[in-house]
């Protein structure tokens, strides 16, 4: 027990060393004063530790979310400060995640396909890096898209002294990563920050370089976020996207670590933990938070064993707040920008595009389009494009259900696809295998597909009198699927063909029986496809008990 | 050939008789002058006849779309007339449908599940009927939601003379439906309109009743819609919903009639036809158009054989325009409201809610929620709720892929679910059947599901060394599914378990081979599951040619 505490304390200390510079930097990236990042790294961690489920989720400010927050807050009405907007945004994110937890909507994490998520994260990485370049170089350029940045860079100027600070910081960080031992690489950002503050405070080397500036006293501001209704409505769409991204990115890292650690992760508990953390952030002067990829990996590698490690992180952050209160004013902004630049660019890779393109052109294109949308349009539009595009591609591919015409493998009771096997078909019955669940995304195509296969049977085998559907692969039929089966029944009846089922799965059969569907449409049911093919016009209708018994083959 | 022309002429005449009153009424319902409905029933029909594919699509103004148009135009900025707004809306609907046709997105029609569509149509029917009651009764009440209508009805007053005209018209229409021959029921709305115009023009009986009033001269106004950018942006979300609804509702009726008629329908051609019709409507003073359920059925029953019948409808509409130009001014509005009321209420039914509820609670609730959203919120919100709700229910149900642990049926080479059959399992290999395609909606759950089944095998059968996935039911693996398989490979490797596949379908195998996936992850491949179970650690890797040949069983 004691060793668990010691391990968590150690992991907490190591992660705090990374979180201190990141929290300051990501707050600046979100267009907020740096102390907001510290506030967001304090009590929200305790909220997640109380309600979440992963022992290694590096909760706090994250870079991608910071970019989304910056764009969401860019359109605030006059008179509303960015800090006030961030609190409202965090409250909405917390409330939406809490609502999703209540409605058990953790499956919403599936809304973002891998190509959409990777395309978005890569685009955000590039955009964050591009946005830090002017700060690094002392240019006044700013903007949320590459064209805006480029346009404003023309008249943005350049301060050599800033560029020296920024370039020097980048060089030191890269050097510590490449050359030094692992411990040095982890300590480097914090050492750099402390060193830069000292250099800037006690020497004239920083004259002309933008500094963070004097902060209000660092006391945790406990207050409710503004309850201004138009402001809430304005930020709601952004909050929905930030919430989705916070949940999906946190779940992705905590799930993959749980698998690696052989632990069980509860998505519903993650949702609750994130909701609580964001609500607490909104009451304690913070900004929306999520699980960071780099800090979660670090927690795992540093040996965190329980969520107590997050409590220790919060304690170290409190210490940092007390120690950093005064010197923070001297921190040169180019140095902060350098830590952001180096931190995010490590996550960028072109490999994903190549791989997706090689495997599936359309998904590779979607990934690239989402990245381009981040760079040229906005993070909100890019995320919406990713969700809608993924669904459109899936609908496009699944609009027609997969149905195979099957025949008997000679000498057996088995039925296989006529396209792939040498099989026997009897003229009077069309044997078809429905290869997937019948749901609204493919239901509309069912009648068309079946009628085409019936026509094929008619042309190649003979005039049929019945159509026997092997329903074994069907796991679920929703209301749209049921209506499609009704339409199929009517369309077949119009050609004087009977509709029959075989090998219907238990759960599917239960629901059909619950509404008396088979009786109403006079659909005979067979335990095995072979029975159905052999049967005459008047079929047996075995009871459910029969059907569930170990069947004949 | 001659008889085809005669049949189409006849069908055109019969449908025009229904379209004349409907076009006037639905324009009024959309908050537009009645002649807009006539304009929308003229050249757009020719555009569809040229590019569409159904010989029986009753194109023109439709009630549900009219309600959506009314709500979209309610928020127009000062200085923009409803007519100008309707033209922009039609142009946007046409452009969006055209874009969808270019990108071959006809699968987008699957976005609306049956419960969402029926819930929406029922809600729209009720809302349209409720909205016509004040017109019928001479009340000044108005509003787009039931609460708004009820609130304004308190002070809306009531004109007995209007109520007499309106109530009388409803009674006559219902009587003609119930009592008279079918022909009379079809002629009734037109006869009623002509009779009412005559009575109202030549007698004092209409004094105090709201009339349509003098119209500008009925000359087809050929002009481009306004190109005001803010106006286009404001109407774009409504246009997307109107376009989706126009496509889905048109396709639903034209597809079901095509099946009944044994004809082939091309969804892509429907998309083109609808796009062209709406673009033409935007240049010729119209409003967004779609296929009407009642008029399409009528075209079919009246014997339409080709899209020439629509051309004849347009010719008759032109005649009607010339004849109706003057007398239209005298038409009492309560009579027009009566034709709307009787036309839409025929489509309302509670049966769908009962059936959906009995079959699947969640889908029944969604249907009711969409209807309630139409009545209490807005058509746009209701349609969005229907789309998002359907996808959420599907994600919720499919978030975990269906995977069965399978064993050998004694004495055979066949493998069945251990839960449902008496089968034999070998300790050293876990046999699993993946029962559906691996796509982004279920990919995230794969590792969890498989690891749980491996743990079950370990507890009940023994310590395994390999996991053999029977991939027969998998029709498709998208990039997210592929990544999930990679994660599964890593998770199994962490437990010292090998991952192997059997019975992979040809198209799925082709793509895996294209990126060298099986080699990269060292996944052995077996022609049949039985082979895989029997095999030792060093597996054969049959070539694609072997795999595609008629296999052993």
From TrEMBL, chains A, B:
Residue ranges crossing the lipid bilayer per the database entry: 84-103, 158-175, 187-211, 231-253, 274-294, 306-324, 336-353, 365-395
Top-level division of the source organism's lineage: Bacteria
Membrane topology: Multi-pass membrane protein
Keyword Oxidoreductase in annotation: no
Keywords: Membrane, Transmembrane, Transmembrane helix
UniProt-listed CDD domains: STAS_SulP_like_sulfate_transporter
Principal localisation: membrane
Parts forming coiled coils: none
InterPro entries: SLC26A/SulP_dom (IPR011547), SLC26A/SulP_fam (IPR001902), STAS_dom (IPR002645), STAS_dom_sf (IPR036513)
Keyword Plastid: no
Pfam families in the record: STAS, Sulfate_transp
PROSITE patterns in alphabetical order: STAS
UniProt-annotated location(s): Membrane
Annotated ranges, domain STAS: 419-536
Protein name: STAS domain-containing protein
Source organism per UniProt: Pelomonas caseinilytica
């Amino acid at each position: 027990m004691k060793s668990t505490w010691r391990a968590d304390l150690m992991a907490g200390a190591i992660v705090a060393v990374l979180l201190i510079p990141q929290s300051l930097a990501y707050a600046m990236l979100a267009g907020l004063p740096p102390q907001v990042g510290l506030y967001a790294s304090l009590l929200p961690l305790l909220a997640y530790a109380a309600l979440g489920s992963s022992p290694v989720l590096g909760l706090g400010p994250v870079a991608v979310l910071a970019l989304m927050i910056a764009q969401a807050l860019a359109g605030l009405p006059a008179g509303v400060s960015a800090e006030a907007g961030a609190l409202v945004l965090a409250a909405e994110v917390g409330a939406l995640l809490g609502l999703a937890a209540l409605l058990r909507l953790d499956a919403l994490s599936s809304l973002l396909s891998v190509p959409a998520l990777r395309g978005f994260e890569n685009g955000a990485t590039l955009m964050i890096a591009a946005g830090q370049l002017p700060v690094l170089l002392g240019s006044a350029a700013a903007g949320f898209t590459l064209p805006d940045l480029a346009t404003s860079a023309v008249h943005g100027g350049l301060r050599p002294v800033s560029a020296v600070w920024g370039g020097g910081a980048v060089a030191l960080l890269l050097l510590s990563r490449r050359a030094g031992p692992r411990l040095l690489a982890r300590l480097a950002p914090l050492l750099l920050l402390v060193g830069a503050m000292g250099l800037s405070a006690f020497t004239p080397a920083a004259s002309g370089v933008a500094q963070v500036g004097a902060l209000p006293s660092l006391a945790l501001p406990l207050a409710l976020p503004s309850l201004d209704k138009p402001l809430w409505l304005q930020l709601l769409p952004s909050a929905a996207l930030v919430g989705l991204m916070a949940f999906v990115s946190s779940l992705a890292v905590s799930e993959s670590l749980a698998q690696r650690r052989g632990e069980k992760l509860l998505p519903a508990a993650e949702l609750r933990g994130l909701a609580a953390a964001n609500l607490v952030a909104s009451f304690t002067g913070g900004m929306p938070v999520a699980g960071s990829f780099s800090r979660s990996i670090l927690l795992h590698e540093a040996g965190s064993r329980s969520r107590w490690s997050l409590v220790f992180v919060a304690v170290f952050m409190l210490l940092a707040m007390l120690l950093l209160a005064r010197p923070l004013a001297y921190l040169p902004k180019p140095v902060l920008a350098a830590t952001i630049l180096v931190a995010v660019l490590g996550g960028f890779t072109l490999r994903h595009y190549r791989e997706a393109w090689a495997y599936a052109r359309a998904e590779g294109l979607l990934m690239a389009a989402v990245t381009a949308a981040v760079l040229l349009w906005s993070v909100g539009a890019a995320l919406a494009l990713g969700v809608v595009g993924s669904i459109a591609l899936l609908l496009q591919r699944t609009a027609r259900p997969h149905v195979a015409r099957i025949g008997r493998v000679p000498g057996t009771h088995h039925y296989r696809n006529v396209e792939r096997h040498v099989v026997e078909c009897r003229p009077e019955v069309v044997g078809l295998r429905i290869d997937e669940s019948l749901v609204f995304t493919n239901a509309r195509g069912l009648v068309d597909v079946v009628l085409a296969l019936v026509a094929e049977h008619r042309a190649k085998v003979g005039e049929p009198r019945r159509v026997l559907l092997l329903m074994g692969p069907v796991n679920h039929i929703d209301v749209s699927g049921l209506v499609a089966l009704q339409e199929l029944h009517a369309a077949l009846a119009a050609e004087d063909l009977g509709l029959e089922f075989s090998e219907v799965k238990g759960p599917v059969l239960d629901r059909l029986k619950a509404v008396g569907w088979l009786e109403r449409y006079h659909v005979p049911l067979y335990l095995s496809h072979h029975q159905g093919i052999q049967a005459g016009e008047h079929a047996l209708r075995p009871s459910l008990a029969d059907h569930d018994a170990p069947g004949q083959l």
